Every structure is written in C-alpha cells, then in structure tokens.
Amino acid sequence: MNHERAGRQLLLVQQTLAAARHDGIRLWLRGGWAMDFFLGEVTRDHGDIDWFAWSKDSAAVAALLTRLGHTPVPGPPPGLQLDFVRDGLDSSFTLVDRDAAGRVVVAGGPWAGTPWPEGLLDAAPGRIGAVEAPIVGPLAQIEIKRMMPVWDPSRPRRAKDAEDVARLEAALKRR
Predict the structure, then answer these.
(1) Which end of the chain, N or C, is more open, meaning fewer C-beta atoms within 10 Å of its C-beta?
(2) Per the domain annotation, does 174 fall within a domain?
C-alpha cells in the first residue's frame, strides 16, 4: 500500500469536509473511502476520493473546491457529477436529489430520478484516527458494489468490489 498517497488523500478528505462544513455544504464519502471510514482503517490503495453531494449545492461545491486549489476535470454530463484534481489527487462528486417520495435519487444523466439504495445517506459518521466523515451506509455500499455491473453493464465486476463486500459483511457481523 502507498502510505504516503493514502495520507495525502486522508488529509484532503479532512480539508474538504472542514471547508464544506464551514460553507454549510453536506458531503458523504462513497466507494472505498466510505468503506475504510466505516471499518476505521485504510484497507487498500485508492485511485480517487468518491463523494455524494446534493445537486442544489453543485455550484457551491465547485466554488469551494476551486478556492481550495482544485482544478475541474472535464467528464460526465453537467448535473450528474463533478470531477476535480489537486496535487495529483482525484476527487469525484456524484450529485443526488430527492424525489417527490423523499427518496435519494440520481440527479442527472440517463438515470436521472432512479432511486439509490435505501438508507444511502443515513449512516452514522465513520472515523479513521481523529478524522470523522459522513459516509454512505454499509448496507447501501454493499448493494451498490453488487449491483453496479447490473445497473450499468459497461462497468464490469471488479475484484476489489468483491473484497470490499466481504470486508463490510464481516464487519457488520461483528457489530
């Protein structure tokens, strides 16, 4: 594991969350970092830092990241995701909304309005050392990792997702 890179990413998580809290913006870690914060330790190398943010806050998120020295990266269609890089570290912000029934849904793109798993943003914060972060709930993490190749066939199953599911399930059994 690249401990130096993980330390830099962890510091970036901490800085991003502190600035977001200051600006009244809610963010949640998703993906591998959400799992690690749930488990309380860094379990593997992470290619990027994945987040969820409310779509109504997308302009504020972009302004905050620019203020923190991040550079926008062109990518997904507007309204779906924001991608940024700072000091060689990638951060990706998937945008979410609520539908008329109050469910958290995909904010934009071809799947706009599709519900995310129940309880997505309802988990207690996770922690690694002194850093606390809002995270995607572990059951929602498991469902996303299992279902992503079904929901989007262009994204094949990955070995790291199976390993993450096994780690999350083992931790849930211990609790």
Answers:
(1) C
(2) no
